[in-house]
Amino acid sequence: MEFRKATMDDFDTAFDFIEKLWSYNDYDKDEIRNVYADVLSDDSNFAFFAVEDGQVRGFCHCACFNTFWLSGMTCYLSGIITAEDVRGKGYGIAIMDEVVRIAKERGCKGVVLDSGMPRTGAHAFYEKYGFDRGCYGFDLIF
Prior knowledge:
Blueprint: E1 2-5, H1 11-21, H2 29-41, E2 45-52, E3 55-67, E4 72-82, H3 91-105, E5 111-113, H4 120-129
Parallel strand pairs: 4-5
Antiparallel strand pairs: 1-2, 2-3, 3-4
């Protein structure tokens, strides 16, 4: 498997994954295109695709920033998703390994994420990977 840095040419593929990851949201494609462009142009972010045999198997986006929580650089895993037909086949682990590699390379002290309450399968994956269930996430949406 290879990891390919996300580009604007990949937007439609990324958008498909984004819609599936947060299927309970309604997305304006043009607005998401602008967010995607901002993410790709910000050096504190990284986004990539997992590709095997020419097929995109997954997508990931992270942002690195200083926090008091970890007393330094922290990698926030904003989104990680694999194609439905390859779940349970090791792609998520490979993507997570790449996140950890990049985070360490950027000097991060850890990787943090949050996950929607109904995503129990994802929670099991994160815990099996080694994440601790450390807090509740709260949203105040405007």
